[in-house]
Write a structure and sequence with these properties.
mainly alpha, Rossmann fold, 2 strands
C-alpha cells in the first residue's frame, strides 16, 4: 500500500527500509521515523514487541519530531510515512500536527502472528513466543482506542487489507475521495501475492504450527472480539472475519 501511494504522487520518504525476510520487494518504511521510534522505545526500556505499558515521550523527542515534520512540510506539498511503531504514539503525532490523515490497515490476527513468527529472532521465537500474538492485540487496541477517542478531531480511515485487495477499484475510489487525492494508478500493478505468505524452513514451520494451535486455544476469543471492533470501524471492511486457518 505504501508503494502504491508513492506511485500515486504521495512521497513516502527519501530513505526507505530495504528488502528483508518476508518482504523481498522492500518495506517502504521511512528510516527517519523508524529510527525515531526505535530510539523512543529504547528510552522507555522496551521494544516494538514488549510495549504493554504506558509510553512516555520526553520533551527532547517532541522537539526532534517537530523538526522532522517541519522539514518534510517545507520540502513536499503531499507526503506521508509508513512505520508500524507509529501506532504506539498516535496521540503524540496528532497533537503535533492535527492536519495529518491516518490510514489504518488491519489484517487477520492469525496471518499477522504467523508472519511475525516467520521473521522473529530465534531468542524471541523460543523464549517469548507470546510476543507475536500479543503485539497484534497491543497495536490494534491502540488503533481502536485512537479512532474511538479522537475520531471527532482526527481524520481516520480504517481499512481491511483483505477487503481492499478483494475489490481494489472500490477501495481506490473510497481512498481517493477520503484523501482528496486521485489515486489514478491500478493497484494490481503493485500487489504481488506471490511474495506474501512465504513458508519458513521445516523446523521453524513445525514449531509455528504448534504455537498457532496454542494461540488459537488461548486467544481466539480476544482476537475475534477485537477483529469485530475493527470491522465495525472500517471504511473498507473485510468480506469475512478471520477463522484462524
Amino acid at each position: 500500500m505504501a508503494s502504491y501511494l508513492e506511485a500515486c504522487g504521495i512521497s513516502m520518504g527519501d530513505r526507505l527500509l530495504g528488502a528483508g525476510i518476508g518482504n523481498e520487494l522492500g518495506h517502504f518504511e521511512d528510516m527517519e521515523f523508524l529510527e525515531f521510534h526505535k530510539d523512543l522505545l529504547r528510552e522507555n526500556k522496551t521494544d516494538m514487541y514488549g510495549c504493554q505499558r504506558q509510553l512516555v515521550v520526553p520533551g527532547v523527542y517532541r522537539d526532534r519530531a517537530l523538526s522532522i515534520l517541519n522539514r518534510r512540510n517545507s520540502k513536499y506539498n503531499l507526503w506521508g510515512w509508513k512505520e508500524p511503531r507509529t501506532t504506539l504514539f498516535l496521540p503524540f503525532w496528532f497533537q503535533l500536527d492535527q492536519n495529518v490523515k491516518f490510514i489504518f490497515l488491519y489484517r487477520d490476527p492469525y496471518e499477522v502472528t504467523k508472519s511475525l513468527y516467520r521473521r522473529m529472532k530465534l531468542k524471541y521465537l523460543f523464549l517469548q513466543p507470546w510476543k507475536a500474538p500479543l503485539s497484534w492485540i497491543r497495536y490494534n487496541g491502540a488503533l481502536i482506542d485512537f479512532v474511538e477517542n479522537y475520531s471527532r478531531m482526527a481524520d481516520c480511515a480504517v481499512v481491511s487489507l483483505s477487503g481492499f485487495i478483494a475489490n481494489p477499484e472500490d477501495g481506490r475510489s473510497k481512498l481517493s475521495h477520503w484523501l482528496g487525492v486521485e489515486l489514478n494508478v491500478p493497484f494490481a500493478d503493485f500487489y504481488r501475492p506471490q511474495h506474501m505468505n512465504r513458508r519458513s524452513s521445516g523446523w521453524r514451520e513445525r514449531l509455528i504450527r504448534a504455537y498457532m494451535w496454542l494461540v488459537k486455544a488461548t486467544l481466539d476469543r480476544r482476537f475475534q472480539s477485537m477483529y469485530k471492533q475493527l470491522e465495525q470501524l472500517a471504511e473498507i471492511p473485510s468480506s469475512a472475519v478471520g477463522k484462524g486457518t
